[in-house]
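Reopening this ticket.

The earlier resolution said the output was attached, but the attachment link was broken on my side. Pasting everything inline this time so it's all in one place.
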Amino acid sequence: MKKPTTTPVPPDAATGFSYSRPYFEELVDTALAHARKLGATDAGAEASEGCGLSVSVRKGELENVERNRDKSLGVTVYLGRRRGNASTSDFSRTAIEQTVQAAYDIARFTAEDSFAGLPQAEDVALPSEQRTDLDLFCPWGISSEQAAQLAMVCEAAALQADRRISNSEGAGVSAQQSHFFSAHTRGFRGGYASSRHSMSVSPIAGKGGDMQRDAWYSSMRHPGDLAAPEAIGRYAAERALSRLNARKIATTECPVLFESPLAAGLLGSFVQAISGGALYRKSSFLLDSLGKQVLPKHIDILEDPFVERGKGSSPFDEEGVRVKARQVVEAGRVQGYFLGSYSARKLGMKTTGNAGGSHNLSLTSRLTRTGDDLDAMLEKLGTGLFVTELMGSGVNYVTGDYSRGASGFWVERGRIAFAVQEITIAGNMKSMLKGIQAVGADAYNYGAKTVGSILVNRMKVAGS
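Inline output:
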């Protein structure tokens, strides 16, 4: 085995990486070779590097500039059904062999788990099957001065939007990128580079006892896809201003409209409930839901790992298993779970290529029309609560009980009447999912999830 180079040459100065793909391949191959030498029945290794720039400003002044760079080599060793993991940030041959030895020793003294192991060879994404056209790596060659200027423009747009914008918690710009190479003894070899950039601002409206804060941001793989800093600033200001003169409401039961970013959270709760870990531990309110009606017949959920520049896109999952586009929910019925190899074995099923999470989920309604923007959704709400912020993490995944602090707007006859704060909304996720009456065309992408605003037919609202 060729010894890894001690002074790697960057593959391309434009990438900003210190290590090349071929160098990472050498590191991983060295680790796997040493694992075999020690007597491992199976092994996997991954070399990775990340770097980036984060700049924050407040009230027109530079507040913080941070550059990050990290690297790692992780090793997993199997002795039959016993598993050991170890990692290092030292890429020398001695450190690699010591790391493999550490993983091997951990496996020796770990209890046997009959479900542990690498994925089956027939599930592995071969190099010829791995998509290379997803455009996931879009580096942003921005300097700290340029980033600070963008953040200041963003914050200034918020502060100048209205004289009632009295202060700011600051604005920030971040440019991050990483790459990795992974391989294991069941035939997988693969890796890729990716990027994620963002811009955000948090203005404060009002004075004295009536001060309200809100925020907005844009996050994309390609810097050219980010929203304009002026637009981010103005919208954040509008959101903060709209919350002024908020009040409580009397305790009631009513329809609740979740703003699209919050609707993505409802989709996230559904995903967690039908994910392998929750299912085999029997800690899910959607146990044995495969093939069953858990959402209204007008709801579909699609998973697509191959969206160009998608934040949840990937040519394979974290175990090197091939991924594919699929219908997770069709006409309200669950068509598939989210499983990695381990959870699939525990459930007596096959992996779905979701080790590490879901890939670009979109929840849609067959009733949605192109004109169903937020105004149209408010009309469908009629009289009820429009929620724009949630506090706490009050979801019991065993029972499905849901209770969150909330703020937003009281709506009467399809029009916003006044801002609302210091309330709690409660229900049960089972009935909430089945009670989805409409999904807006105001689709919003939040990480790997895209969904419009969601109208739930009835929830309890605790106020004064």
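Reporter confirms the inline version is readable. The radius of gyration is 25 Å. The chain has nine helices and 20 strands.
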